[in-house]
Amino acid sequence: MISAPMTRTAGVRGRWLQVRLNDSVPPYLRALLGQVEPFPAAIRDGRWQILACNRSYEALFGLGPVPPPQRNELLLYFTDPRTRQLLPEWELDAPRLVSQFRAACARHPDDPAWIRLLERLRHGSPEFEQLWRDGGWFHPWMAPRHFRHPVVGGLSLTPYHLWSAPQADGVVATGFTPADAASAAKLRRLGEQG
After folding, report:
1. Residue 87 has what pLDDT?
2. Fewer beta carbons within 10 angstroms: which end of the chain, N or C?
3. Is the pLDDT of residue 61 over 80?
4. What is the mean pLDDT of residues 75-104?
5. SS (H, E, C) the chain
6. All domains of the chain, ordered by start, with CATH?
């Protein structure tokens, strides 16, 4: 399911998170979002749909005005100009994301939700379409990623992914830790503004 028809605000250790009412996010993952503040973190499903996120993640990616049903990491990455401006190494990372999505799609060749997401990406982004047609495969890496945030400036963050169960395309906690002291200080500022 790509859309999120209803949301509510849930308190986790004094922090407020936007979560879907009918989601499959286990309580321990919701609690994790509050525990890792001010580091940006989100819970997403196998189709990169953001199910829940903390304030720092929302502030980092400017998700405030994005309705929850539209919070898909791939769609935002390839179709939202704000996301592209945020990521100075966009062109280097895009092939990796398409490769990961291609592998996931291969596991769901007849699933209508996966097919709809693929069509939205292909029609919504000429860059995605080109990378998809090129058919390249790229190995993932966890090198620090660089961000140009409009409020706090440059950030160097190391991504992480924590799968909640040993299954392909399941729920995953994804986020970033600071790669240096300056980025850590900026994340604290960003979390306070979120």
Report:
1. 93
2. N
3. yes
4. 92
5. CCCCCCEEEEEECCEEEEEECCCCCCHHHHHHHHHCCCCCEEEECCCCEEEEECHHHHHHHCCCCCCHHHCEHHHHHHHCHHHHHHCCCHHHHHHHHHHHHHHHHHCCCCCHHHHHHHHHHHHHCHHHHHHHHHCCCCCCCCCCEEEEECCCEEEEEEEEEEECCCCCCCCEEEEEEECCHHHHHHHHHHHHHC
6. 26-193 (3.30.450.180)
